[in-house]
Amino acid sequence: MKATNNPHYLSSQRARQAVRVGGVRFLAWAFNSPKPAWAYVALGAAALFFTRMTMNGWASDAGQTVYDDATLLKAMEGDPLLGSRIPKIATAPGSTFVVVTSKCGCNEHTLAPLSDALPPNFRLVAILQADDSELESLRSTLPNMTLIPDVNGEISSELNAAFLPRTYLLDRLGRVEWIQKNYRQSLVEALNECLARRQTQGGTP
Domain of life of the organism in this record (predicted)? Predict the structure, then answer.
């Protein structure tokens, strides 16, 4: 998962960066002069914390974003209400499964399994934080998917994409029917949950 324009995510990234910088300065000070025994215990604890934060940063840079659950729960309070319309996404005869994701060279491999798993009566739409010219190569490799550029994050904000990628289900009138809540799911896992929930509510899978 890549970074999003969501302010909760960006503030956590800035905080993590500040911790890394502070950690480097602290370690440099600690190892440059002798200290009493208790100081080395504190140093070990600080080093462990700093290592964890750094590993989280590496995971984020590798596309495996580490989110804070409490922050996400707060951010998801801004989710659109079920039944509300998303006018920037055109309606279709059937249901529309929407994926909001960032600009990433991995999107072809990330989105392809989802395209293969989608039921035939569903339309697949990907909202990408990229301009239209950057989507040309994806359009040729994912011909069964509608790609919509969202450079300024307007659609992402309307859908409240608190984490990326995040998925939604719209009905044939463009109304929100389901929203992904678990950021740990793969796209296919999110689709399967969506279909199972829809089936239990009497909808067509």
Answer: Bacteria
Provide the H-helix boundaries in the chain.
7-31, 37-61, 69-75, 107-117, 136-141, 154-159, 187-200
Give the type of residue at 63. Answer: G
State phi, psi for 122 to the nearest 5 degrees.
-110, 145
101 in Cβ contact with 164 (< 8 Å): yes
User: CB burial class (10 A; 0-12, 13-18, 19+) of residue 163?
Assistant: buried
> What is the spatial distance between Cα 91 and Cα 93, in angstroms, rounded to a whole number?
7
Q: Which residue bears the tokens 């659109």?
A: 80
Alpha-carbon distance of 29 to 51, in angstroms, equals 17
Tokens of residue 15, six digits: 């905080």
Taking CA atoms, 117 is separated from 54, 102, 123, 168, in Å, by 36, 21, 12, 15
- Distance set, CA 73 to CA 4, 57, 76, 176, 181 (Å): 16, 21, 5, 19, 9
Calculate the CA 62 to chain-centre distance.
13
Helix axes 37-61 and 7-31, enclosed angle (nearest 10): 140
Distance CA 62, CA 149 (A): 23
Residue 171 identity (one-letter amino acid) = D
Q: How is residue 30 written in tokens?
A: 């600690």
Which pTM does this prediction carry? 0.66
